[in-house]
């Protein structure tokens, strides 16, 4: 195990909405607590209507203003729901506000009815969304480069546009691509600064897929070591393993409105006593993961403390 692995905490924006607690300030305070405890990053998921929650970029701006060190990430943003010129402007401003701490995790959206309705509600076609995402990101990077006015003739028509400020980091924040399908591995190897899947729970599969990402990067003439291997993990920690299992199943079913058995078949999720959870996480670190985004189930402060207590055991 490597001590270089970073440990992140997913802020419960969706969870707070689900239980009728929409206040944003307590979530920002959790980010401050995470920084004080020693977490390396905090993350916020993205959804407009499919899984209603606080807006990710707005919340991260609030977190940036009251923290100094911790990295700020989206897990994961659906960039195709936003106009890329506006998103480039927002992300550049957030990167300036955080002084280079922003990481943009991006995803392609699962094909389920609620997400199709979300695309419809925001006026974005669901079909060809992956090509739309990739073109939008290219346009954003062109605007971030700061090489002068940008003109673009594609899905978006842009003439002599300048986005200012450009991001704090030259070229813009790192972009990590989610997903474990073969096409997602190919995109991560060819185009992205990090690979950020959310499943499955098998560390050996993670290792095999990481090898594919690296091979795709080499084939594209990129340095595979420049791609950050990350992982999105959901954990329920309790000395009573049966209680932890029940908590995890109830959480997943309430969050996604699907059976826990189905969800655990493709998401990286684990329940158990602290030592068992640490051992499961360690498997991903041993397989090459270098940045963990952990979504804990249960009391936020208690779970954050337990993750930090077990950090040494999984190589964090």
SS elements, strand count: 11
Biggest β-sheet, characterized?
8 strands, parallel, barrel
CATH superfamily: Luciferase-like domain
Order of helices and strands: EHHEHEHEHHEEEHEHEHHEHEHH
What is the CATH architecture annotation? Alpha-Beta Barrel
Fraction of residues in helices?
40-55%
| Main structural class | alpha/beta
Shape: globular
Q: Round the Cα radius of gyration to an integer and report it.
A: 19 Å
Overall mean confidence score, pLDDT: 96
- How far apart the termini lie comes to 8 Å
Strand order within the widest beta sheet: 1-2-3-4-7-8-9-11
Structural key phrases:
316 residues; alpha/beta; TIM Barrel; 8-stranded parallel β-barrel; two-stranded antiparallel ribbon; 11 strands; 18% strand
Your description of this structure?
With about 325 residues, the protein is of the alpha/beta class. It has one domain (about 5-315): TIM Barrel. It is about 45% helix and about 20% strand. An 8-stranded parallel barrel has the order 1-2-3-4-7-8-9-11, surrounded by 7 helices. The protein has a two-stranded antiparallel ribbon with strand order 5-6. Strand 3, helix 4 (about 85-95) and strand 4 form a beta-alpha-beta unit. The radius of gyration is 19 Å and the shape is globular.
Explain the layout of strands and helices:
Elements: E1 6-10, H1 13-18, H2 25-37, E2 41-44, H3 56-66, E3 71-77, H4 84-97, E4 102-106, H5 113-121, H6 129-145, E5 150-153, E6 157-161, E7 175-177, H7 182-191, E8 194-195, H8 203-219, E9 228-237, H9 241-256, H10 260-264, E10 269-272, H11 274-286, E11 291-297, H12 300-309, H13 311-314
Parallel strand pairs: 1-2, 1-11, 2-3, 3-4, 4-7, 7-8, 8-9, 9-10, 9-11
Antiparallel strand pairs: 5-6
Helix pairs in contact: 2-3, 2-12, 3-4, 4-6, 7-8, 8-11
